[in-house]
Structures are given as structure tokens and as C-alpha cells.
């Protein structure tokens, strides 16, 4: 998948969470990507970040940085979720 497509998708996810404020938007976006994106997609967005992260909205950039740094934690602690 092209970096442009991944950036568009990540920014769309980020827009969903933006009403929760910048910190929660970053955490929610990171968690969504961690839970639902294919590992190859996650690797590609991390490569895009390493190359400068062009086009990522600020809180989405932070979300990808959180993924890179292992800071995205599970939202739910309930078994089976």
C-alpha cells in the first residue's frame, strides 16, 4: 500500500478521535492502528515516519511516534477483547 494511502487512512482515523483532545486523539489513533492494521501496514507507516512523516496531522504523527516507541496500550483490559 502506498504511503499516501496510509497517511490518508491514518489521518481519517485521527479525525474521528480529535474531539477528545490532542492527547486522547493520539492515544486513540495509536490504539486503533495497533489493533486493526495489518503488521505490514504498521511497518509501512513507521517507515514513512522515519522518512519525515510528510502529510501526517500533528496528533496522528504523535500516534505513530507512540507506536514506534511502544506506548500504545490496550484500551480494554477485559478478557477476550
Automatic annotation (TrEMBL):
Pfam families: FdsD
InterPro entries reported in the protein's UniProt record: Formate_DH_dsu
Name assigned to this protein: Formate dehydrogenase
Amino acid at each position: 500500500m502506498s504511503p499516501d494511502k496510509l497517511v490518508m487512512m491514518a489521518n481519517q482515523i485521527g479525525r474521528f478521535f480529535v474531539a477528545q483532545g490532542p492527547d486522547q486523539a493520539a492515544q486513540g489513533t495509536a490504539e486503533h492502528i495497533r489493533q486493526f492494521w495489518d503488521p505490514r501496514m504498521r511497518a509501512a507507516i513507521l517507515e514513512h515516519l522515519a522518512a519525515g512523516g510528510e502529510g501526517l496531522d500533528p496528533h496522528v504523527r504523535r500516534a505513530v511516534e507512540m507506536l514506534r516507541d511502544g506506548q500504545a496500550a490496550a484500551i480494554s483490559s477485559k478478557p477476550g477483547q
